[in-house]
Amino acid sequence: ATPTSVLVGTSLAAKRGVLIRGGDVLEALAKVDVVVVDKTGTVTQGRPAVVSVESEGMGEGELMGLAAALEANASAAHPIARAIVEHAGSLGSPGEEGDRIKVGEVEYATGKGVKGVCDGRLTAVGSPDFVREVVGCNFGDPEQRPGTAANTEVYVGVEGRGVVGRISLVDSIRPEARSVLDRLSRSGVESVYMLSGDRQPVVSVVASRVGIRPENALGGQSPFDKADFVARLRGEGRRVCMIGDGINDTLALSEADVGIAVSGGMDAASDAADIVLLGEAGGAGAFAQVEDAVAVSRTTFAKIK
Ligand code: ADP
Ligand code: MG
C-alpha cells in the first residue's frame, strides 16, 4: 500500500466514526487472526440495571445508600457504579441515607470493586472474592446460592459484620454483537475469545448468546490475566486484536497487535488503544464499527499478499 492509499483509508474510516492512529495500525489489523473481546461494555451495552437486592440486618434503602455512598465517591465511573447510584436514587436513598453516611477516602480496585470507611467501619462493594478479602469475612460459595444464573452480582460487606447484602444486575447484549463476530469468523479470523472480570456463569451465558465457543469464554480475569492471555497468544505467533472498553482492559489493549476501544467506555481505554470506535451518541452501534475498521484495513492492504 502506498502512503496515499493509507491516508485515504484512514480518512475514509474517520468519516465513519472510526479513529485510526497511524498507517501501521491498518496494516496490522489486516493481518489479525485472533480476536479477544471484553464482556462488560464491549459485547454488552455497559448499561446494567439493578434487578434485585437482598439485605441482611438492614433495609434495602439503607443497603443501597451504603453501596451508593461508596460508588459515588470512587473516581472511575464504572457501569456498575452508575447502576448502583441510579437505583439508590430511585429508592430515595442517596439524598436521605447517603448524606448521613460519613465516607472517608474511597479506593477503587480495578476489576474488583470499591472500598472505603463508611461511618467508621471499613466497607466494600464488589465481587465476592474482593469483599471477602477486604472485610475478612467468610461466607459460603456464592455459586451455591440459588437464583444466581446469569446475573452480575455485587456483594456488600462491612468489617465486623460480614456480608450485609447482595445486589444483582443485568446488562443487555449489544444487538449487533453476534452477527459481527460471526462474519469475522467467516472472513479469516480463526478464533474469538471472551475475557471478563465477571463470574464464569455470566460470562458463559453471554458467550453462548453471541456464538463464542464455551472453552473460549473465561470469567474471573483480572486486568493482568487479560494482558497475559494476549501476550501468550502473541508468543504463539498469533496476530491478536483486543477489543475492550474499560480501564481494566488498558493493559491487554496495549499488549495486543491492535487494541480497539469501543466508545461509551472510559477515557483510559481510548488512550491505550490504536483504534477508537465512536459509534453514535452514547456509543450505540460502536461494536458494528469493528467490521468497518477491518474492511478498510483489508481494502488498503489487499495488494500486499
Ligand atoms: P469486565 O471484565 O467484564 O469488563 P470488570 O473487570 O469491569 O468486568 O468487573 C469485574 C467484576 O468486578 C464485576 O463483575 C464486579 O463484581 C466487580 N466490580 C468492578 N467494578 C466494580 C464497581 N465499581 N463496583 C462494584 N463491583 C465492581
Ligand atoms: Mg469492560
Automatic annotation (TrEMBL):
To which protein family does this belong?
A: Belongs to the cation transport ATPase (P-type) (TC 3.A.3) family. Type IB subfamily.
Compartments where found: Membrane
The identity of this protein, by name, is: Heavy metal transporting ATPase
